[in-house]
Design brief:
The structure holds two protein chains of two kinds. Chain A is an alpha+beta fold. Helix content of chain A is about 15%, strand content about 45%. Chain A is built from six helices and 23 strands. In chain A, strand 18 and strand 19 form a beta hairpin. Chain B is α+β, with helices and mostly antiparallel strands. Chain B has one domain: Porin. Helix content of chain B is about 15%, strand content about 50%. In chain B, strand 2 and strand 3 form a beta hairpin. The two termini of chain B are about 45 Å apart. Classes of the chains: A alpha+beta, B alpha+beta. At the A-B interface, helix 1, helix 2, strand 1, helix 5 and strand 23 of A face helix 4, helix 5, helix 6, strand 17 and strand 18 of B.
């Protein structure tokens, strides 16, 4: 029985060891990996669509804020409420904080461009039974003093912001066909005015991080006792009818994105195996902007760091997208098609394979040729993107 | 079909060769009991013990596992990588490269262990009772299902899950089998006929199955312009928590399966022909949880596919009682004595439906009896999704003790093998 136990025990042990494969382990990890590709390497090509989609300008704006006036896309600014004392001489500052203005990805472009069209709507409500007449009403933009007060000249008039040529950013306001604003008793008066001059200044000041206000001045007829007050609201809409500087405007932003979520060793091995990854995109640009794109990315969450200046960042050669053909007013007449090909090596691809990567895009936006720098964005202006990636990988081949 | 024809020709050849050959009276061949002349197989054989010509107990355990992709060197390499580093995406791609084109990935395993009590009665009748635990498992991943990751989509863009499926069951079995030996008929040297029949009550313990339910395995199309995936998988399994709460033998359902055997032997020339069918009938598995996995995507956005894959999961549809068919086994065998000490065997195990995919397989064996009670066995295994395998074994066929140790190296020898089988049997006779 002793021999029987030896024989059976040995056989069972051998069988278990064989079944587990432990008896067949190679001497090193390198040997083990060579074993799995014992037949040599095969080349595997995988082509996958990344996106085939249309992008409208609204996709670049904060969600839900896009509007259309007169066929032009626009961005509203948060409504502000104020009180107008209908006294002989009133000065009402309406401050717009940084939170009131959000142009999303267009922020830099709108700041650096000249706004050609902006609409302001004033609604004045009179809760008293007596009609109120406001005369010599002027709406202008000022940069507030550090204490929040309105800067005044020696005569007590506001010191308005000015254009580059010294023109004060202010406009007179009156009812159509009149020189005054008339608010009936227990009624309202609504006035729409072209406020591009005012709004362009306001936007520049606010986006530059300075305190700014729209100031309303004038004289009211309700100066008796008790004083009649009007409740007012101001709605501003910036329409995307812009004049861009000849050199264009530059937008830079960092985005932290999820990668393929491979661990370091996995990513390194995949990078070694990838012969090349070719991104091909056909872009049909239906916007009045020509675009130069510089792109860099690097592994990890790097906040707002300038990746172009960081060693080790993968920098993609500049991509240039032609702008659509436009008329003299900057309106799109024919979209332009550009095909872009970017080829990355496995090593360059490696940052995209980890948990997160930061990409920095530096976009130079220029108005399409032929409009003198003017660009008008309409809701139908779209960018159609047809992008695919082809990855060539080497992997073990069967014998 | 070609394999079957080839086997038929081979059997005919063996029969012809044996026709004129008598087993010498004092040779080992002539002295071996009829029960032991029936060469044991490492496959399922419900009649293996009831043929033993003595009363007693037999404890037996056996297992068999094979796949068509990884050999033991590969498995060892994966274990090494997993233990000392980690299995990386590139390693998985390398393994996919080992999948033979056109065949996909296939694997099967079975195991059994238990006790037998029985022996011969009067008049050539033998009867045996058995209690065993048994498990079957098999899977097939269609070549179309893995071609995308193995070959990429440069040459082709359309893929399916094909006939991908997998199933496994572990059960307890209580059986009774009997064989009746008749003969010699016609003359003293005439053939002896053995008829066998038996039934087993099968009580499932754990069951699981998954399969593609859309015709032709659904559709997966990956191009540079779009991604389309319309697939549906259905899984059945008996929840483990419920299994743990129940008794080991469970009230998970039951079924009766039947086995039959016909064997004809010509003792003087050593020829034997045999046909066996096993696992006829079905088994009811109760309270099986059915789940559905659906993926229906047609998009031009890679992100949409990633999101759909993240959202897709097996969703419980219902809990049902399931009738399943165990692997039906049809086996034809033949054996001859080549000389005084050498017996040659060939058997073919045919796939005949059932819920577990089982490919065609042929076993060719030789039994060398330099000492009558100490047979040595070597042989070949063909088919069975593993190419060529080798088998060997040794046994002690004594009056009071029976011991058998046998093993197979499937798909190659030792480290080159892609499967292994082993069997140990110990009998004590009164």
């Amino acid at each position: 029985m002793k021999y029987l136990r030896r024989i059976t025990g040995g056989a069972l042990t051998a069988a278990v060891a064989l079944a587990a494969g432990t008896a067949c382990e190679p001497g090193s990890i390198t040997e083990a990996r060579d074993q799995l590709k014992r037949g040599g390497l095969r080349t595997l090509e995988l082509t996958v669509v990344v996106t085939q989609d249309s992008v409208v300008i609204a996709d670049f704006l904060p969600e839900g804020v896009d509007t259309v006036i007169g066929g032009i896309s626009g961005v509203p600014i948060d409504r502000q409420t104020f009180i107008v004392p209908a006294v002989a001489s009133f000065l009402v500052p309406v401050e717009f904080g940084g939170n009131a203005i959000d142009f999303g990805d267009f922020e830099d472009a709108i700041r650096d461009a000249t706004i050609n069209v902006a609409q302001a709507r004033l609604v004045l409500t009179n809760d008293s039974a007596q009609q109120v007449v406001l005369s010599n009403v002027i709406v202008g933009v000022v940069e507030l003093n550090p204490d929040g007060s309105v800067p005044l000249d020696g005569g007590g008039a506001p010191v308005y912001d000015t254009t580059a040529t010294g023109v004060p950013r202010s406009v007179a306001v009156a009812d159509p066909g009149s020189t005054v604003l008339t608010v009936p008793g227990n009624g309202t008066d609504t006035v729409d005015l072209d406020a591009a001059l005012v709004v362009d200044g306001l936007v520049d000041l606010v986006l530059d991080g300075r305190r700014a206000a729209v100031v309303i001045t004038g004289s009211g007829s309700g100066g008796g006792f008790p004083v009649t007050f009007l409740v007012g609201t101001m709605d501003l809409v910036v329409l995307l009818d812009l004049t861009l500087p000849g050199a264009g405007v530059e937008l830079s932003s960092n985005t932290v994105q999820d990668g393929a979520e491979l661990d370091a060793a996995d990513a390194e091995q995949v990078a070694e195996r990838v012969t090349k990854a070719t991104f091909t995109a056909t872009v049909v640009n239906g916007t009045p902007f020509a675009v130069d794109i510089d792109l860099a990315f690097l592994d990890g969450d790097l906040g707002d760091a300038d990746l172009f200046a960081l060693p080790g960042a993968v920098v993609i050669p500049r991509i240039t997208l032609s702008g659509a053909s436009v008329d003299a007013a900057g309106r799109v007449t024919d979209p332009a098609t550009t095909t872009v090909t970017i080829e990355l090596s496995g090593t360059q691809l490696q940052p995209l394979l980890r948990e997160q990567f930061t990409s920095r895009s530096r976009i130079s936006l220029r108005a399409s040729a032929g409009s003198g720098g003017r660009a008008v964005v309409r809701p139908g202006d779209i960018v159609r993107l047809d992008a695919r990636v082809a990855i060539t990988i080497q992997a073990g081949e069967n014998q | 079909m070609r394999c079957f024809l080839a086997l038929t020709v081979l059997l005919a050849g063996l029969a012809g060769a044996a026709h004129g050959q008598a087993v010498p009276e004092r040779s080992q061949g002539a002295r071996v009991d009829f029960g032991y002349r029936r060469t044991p197989t490492l496959r399922v054989d419900p009649f293996r013990h009831v043929m033993i010509p003595h009363w007693g107990f037999v404890f037996s355990v056996g297992a068999r596992g094979v796949n068509n992709v990884l050999n033991f060197r590969d498995i060892g390499a994966l274990i090494k990588i997993n233990d000392e580093d980690s299995i990386l995406v590139g390693d998985v791609l390398d393994v996919l490269g080992l999948v033979p084109r056109g065949l996909g990935i296939g694997g099967a395993a079975e195991g059994e262990g238990g006790f037998y009590l029985g022996g011969p009665l009067a008049g050539g009748l033998a009867i045996g009772l058995s209690a065993k635990g048994r498990g079957y498992g098999a899977f097939e991943l269609d070549d179309d299902a893995i071609a995308l990751l193995r070959d990429g989509n440069g040459a082709r863009q359309e893929f399916t899950l094909g006939d991908s499926r997998g199933a496994g069951i572990a059960s307890m079995e209580f059986g009774v089998h009997a064989v009746l030996r008749i003969g010699p008929v016609y003359s003293a040297d005439g053939p002896r006929i053995t008829l066998g029949a038996g039934a087993r009550q099968v009580r499932p313990v754990v069951y699981g199955r998954v399969r593609s339910t859309i015709e032709n395995g659904g559709r997966i199309a990956v191009t540079g312009d779009s991604i389309i995936a319309k697939i549906e998988l259905e899984s059945f399994y008996t929840p483990i928590d419920e299994f743990e709460a129940s008794t080991a033998f469970g009230d998970r359902g039951s079924g009766i399966v039947a086995d039959f055997l016909v064997r004809v032997e010509w003792p003087t020339n050593g020829l034997a022909l045999e046909a066996m069918v096993a696992n006829l009938g079905s088994v009811t598995v109760e309270r099986v949880e059915r789940r559905i996995f659906q993926l229906d995507v047609a998009t031009t956005l890679l992100d949409s596919v990633i999101q759909a894959l993240e959202d897709a999961e097996f969703v419980i549809r219902d809990t049902i009682d399931l009738d399943l068919t165990l692997p039906r086994i049809v086996r034809f065998g033949a054996s001859v004595w080549a000389n005084r000490i050498l017996q040659l065997d060939i058997s073919a195990t045919l796939p005949v439906g059932g819920d577990f995919p089982r490919p065609f397989a042929v076993d060719v064996g030789s039994t060398w009896r330099f000492v009558r009670t100490l047979p040595l066995r070597v042989g070949l295994v063909l088919g069975d999704n593993q190419g060529v395998g080798f088998s060997g074994g040794i046994a002690i066929e004594g009056r009071t003790i029976f011991l058998q140790i046998a093993g197979q190296s499937l798909g190659g020898l030792f480290k080159q093998a892609s499967g292994v089988a082993g069997r140990f049997e110990l009998g004590l006779f009164f």
